[in-house]
Specification:
Layout: E1 4-13, E2 16-19, H1 20-28, H2 32-39, E3 43-46, H3 53-67, E4 75-81, H4 92-103, E5 112-116, H5 122-135, E6 143-152, E7 165-175, E8 180-190, E9 196-197, E10 205-206, H6 208-230, H7 248-263, H8 267-276, H9 288-304, H10 306-315, H11 321-326, H12 333-347, E11 356-363, E12 367-375, H13 379-384, H14 388-394, E13 396-397, H15 400-409, E14 427-433, E15 439-444
Parallel strand pairs: 2-13, 4-5, 4-6
Antiparallel strand pairs: 1-7, 1-8, 2-3, 6-7, 8-12, 9-10, 11-12, 14-15
Bound molecules: acetoacetyl-coenzyme A.
Acetoacetyl-coenzyme A binds next to helix 2, helix 6 and helix 7.
Amino acid sequence: MTTVGIDAVEIWTGNLKLDLPGTFAPQMGEDPEKYTKGLGLNASSFPDSYEDIVTMGANAAYRLMDRKGLEPEDIGRIDVATESAFDNSKPVSTYVAGCLEQVYEGDFHHANKGERKFACIAGTQSLDDAYNWIKAGRHRGRAAIVIATDTALYARGDAGEATQGAGAVAMLISEDPSLVELSIEQGYGSADETDFLKPNQQFPSVDGKRSVQVYLARMREALEDFESIAGDSHPDQYAYIPFHTPFPGMVRKAGLLGYRHMIRDTEIEDELAAEIGRQPRAEAFDDEEAFREALREYMDSLKETETYQDWYAKTIDPTLTLSREVGNWYTGSVHVARASVLKHGLENDLDLTGSKLLVGSYGSGAEAEIHAETIQEGWREEIAALNVDEQLAARYDLTWDDYEEIHDAHNHDMDVDIEPRTTPDAEFVFDGWGRMGERKYRFVE
Ligand code: CAA
């Protein structure tokens, strides 16, 4: 049977950086450890004045095509996932294709283009669309480019301001992939929720605390749905579990919940019973609140066990390394988590070929999706080609005054023109407005 999955990945970070403990915390009057330890973030990536979702997406896609030696005729599909779109009709993928056509002789006239919206899960849904298109045999031997690109900015003063970020992930989806093969099995957890939304507005309306609960509830539903077809999961089955990462502290909660679920009725629960007892079962309680309280107590104890902490350090923590430095990239975040863990494997010379990932995506509004991935033989070479560390190190470190100006410059309700803080180098840049209000781009050598 044809294997289909991610053949290659590229990451493009916004060119600016906001230091959360050093620059943001003092202005907020908060303890820096709220950011580094609580939320788990050191920095957020920001777009410079000439960057937006199109430039970042096109730059990631150009690196991908260039490195893989691809021409436009090799690509049958370009899908962009974003929740930062600026046009309700013309999709971002047409702008990206227009950018790429400036640097290639060929064109993408025969490539299907679209834009996917379902908050942060849209990146994974676009991956699905490409996977299904190839599996159905409609691709004529061509590959798909999926781009997840966002400027995840919150209104000034919103609690989410600490979790901002900006960047793009471009992925090449093909037959016989070099990086990961996707499982046919998928699980969904979806409900009509009002946790985070942007009703025709740039910055989100967020019920932050509730969004955390909705993420966990939908993720649990998705895991149960996945297990209904893939069989019960066990913590030792997956080398790593990359989750959607709005901030690492969120994944800390998801990891604990997932572990509790996976060890139920296993030898791990039995072995831990002497130390912390067995998991409370709903049927043993008359009262729902007493059951919830017992669960909370069990989770608090579980979190402190060496067994759990070792598993977390091995399986979850390496997924968070990049996220800690870039913040939330919305549609790209779960794909950054996957890249992070493969990078960890490369840096530690691990033999990951054939190992499994369990990938947990989430989008507010709300839906979670879980599928498995198998790491392919070519993963090492693909990940070695990433230059994300150099990109992160080259970011301009914003002062507080810079940050205020940059946030205003990207605020659609403000008309603020500022000097860029960085100099574009071999990349696409925003180049002003066209006669019908369209955004224009050019490649800077
Ligand atoms: N030292 C160590 N830890 C500290 C600390 C200190 N000095 N001060 C606070 N903390 C800890 C807190 O205990 C808390 O951790 P726990 O939840 O584990 O207890 C953590 O730091 C955050 O502190 P607060 O809860 O007080 O932070 P807050 O109220 O200012 O905001 C938030 C948190 C509500 C998540 C806010 O960042 C927010 O609204 N973010 C945007 C929404 C979001 O990302 N939601 C995630 C789920 S929805 C989703 O995933 C989709 C998406 O991408 C948006």
